[in-house]
Amino acid sequence: MKTRQILVCAVFGAILVVFAGMLLLKPAQDVSQAERRKLAQFQTYADWKPTGGQEKTLAGYFTQLETVCLDQFPARQQFRELRSLAKLRLFFQRDAGGYYEVDGSIGKIENELSEAAVTDALGALVKLDAGLFADANRYYAVIPDKNYYLAAANGYPQLAYDTLFSMVDAALGQTCEKIDLAPLLTAESYYNTDPHWRQETILPVADAILQAMDAAPLASDVLWQTDTLSPFYGAYAGHSAIGVPGDALTLLQIPAFDDVTVTGVDTVGGVYDKTDFEHVDPYDVYLGGAEALLRIENPTQTNGKKLIVLRDSFGSSLAPLFIPAYSEITLVDIRYVAPRMLDKLLTVTADTDVLYLYSTSVLNSFGAFMR
């Protein structure tokens, strides 16, 4: 009995020594590609303790060291995946840290509707609708998140979507034309490892919007060429550490895109840049990812039609499907530019089409929009 206790203690001590040595010897990582965040870095107490302001204690320093050790732990991602696997497959828990998996698709449990957050977000849009965009042709569409199709059908709690949709209708329905996207999507419209929709599955969405705005050609009338990048591991794959196969990220493009210019605040480029697939977020291949303001100019379309889209990240993969129908498209993300600044950045006429296009997850996030 005593020998076994000694052996257990020896093995445990050896494990501690080995992992401590690995932690000290392995180079520190700056960023976790899987979790898409910066990792805590070691600092001496003298560097960590501020020279003025709020005093930090020695106990706080050791708490910081603990965070560093957790972030820089050897094989951290492999241990995270093992933990999720144990929760879901060994202990048969319904979720792992708020994430769940159904038929190879990862979802995130988000079932609390913040009416205050939705009201706050809609307030910013209503103010723009009554001011800068008052004379334009206005439309609105809400993008259901993946849980709308995945959660309740598989026994997971779901957001009160009907309440959220009703709030949007009450705020914008009197002055804007509604475009209902919910019936046009399914769980298969979204990536297995990410919350975003697949570009190749949303031609019906683009068609519905273009038809409402009396714009042509429709997306389904265009002879799209496809290009595929893989494997694509989205945000849910890294955050959940649930091991599922990677997705394939498909780009829909046409030869006319070679003549299209996409201008950002400090960038000029094209519709897609495959090198962006190597970013922390590979979804950046669509129009370069998050940008406060993007202007897309299509010289091959001479109808003079202009479209302004107030959007979140879902709009990055949808907007290219609008390009054949418009001479100019401007994408605005008021998460990164204050709405009060738009009158200095945009030219709006009675012929301008304006589309409010937001996902339920953004509308339900308090303080998502700048003021």
Note down, in words, how this protein is organized.
- The protein has twelve helices and 14 strands.
- It has helices at residues 2-25, 45-48, 58-71, 76-90, 115-130, 147-150, 161-172, 203-212, 235-240, 314-318, 342-345, 360-363, and strands spanning 31-32, 37-38, 99-102, 105-108, 137-143, 177-178, 225-232, 247-253, 261-263, 268-269, 293-297, 306-311, 328-332, 353-359.
- Strands 6-5-14-12-13-11-9-10 form an eight-stranded mixed beta sheet. Strands 1-2 form a two-stranded antiparallel sheet. A two-stranded antiparallel sheet has the order 3-4.
- The longest helix has 24 residues, at 2-25.
- The protein is globular.
**What integer is the average pLDDT?**
88
What is the strand arrangement across the widest sheet? 6-5-14-12-13-11-9-10
- Helical run tally: 12
Please write the string of helix (H) and strand (E) elements.
Answer: HEEHHHEEHEHHEHEHEEEEEHEHEH
State the major sheet: 8 strands, mixed
What general outline do the C-alpha atoms trace? globular
Number of strands: 14
Low-confidence segments, ≥5 residues, pLDDT <50? none
Distance between the termini: 68 Å
Tell me the strand percentage band.
15-25%
Structural class computed from helices and strand pairing? alpha/beta
What is the fold's blueprint, element by element?
Layout: H1 2-25, E1 31-32, E2 37-38, H2 45-48, H3 58-71, H4 76-90, E3 99-102, E4 105-108, H5 115-130, E5 137-143, H6 147-150, H7 161-172, E6 177-178, H8 203-212, E7 225-232, H9 235-240, E8 247-253, E9 261-263, E10 268-269, E11 293-297, E12 306-311, H10 314-318, E13 328-332, H11 342-345, E14 353-359, H12 360-363
Parallel strand pairs: 5-6, 5-14, 12-13, 12-14
Antiparallel strand pairs: 1-2, 3-4, 7-8, 9-10, 9-11, 11-13
Helix pairs in contact: 5-7
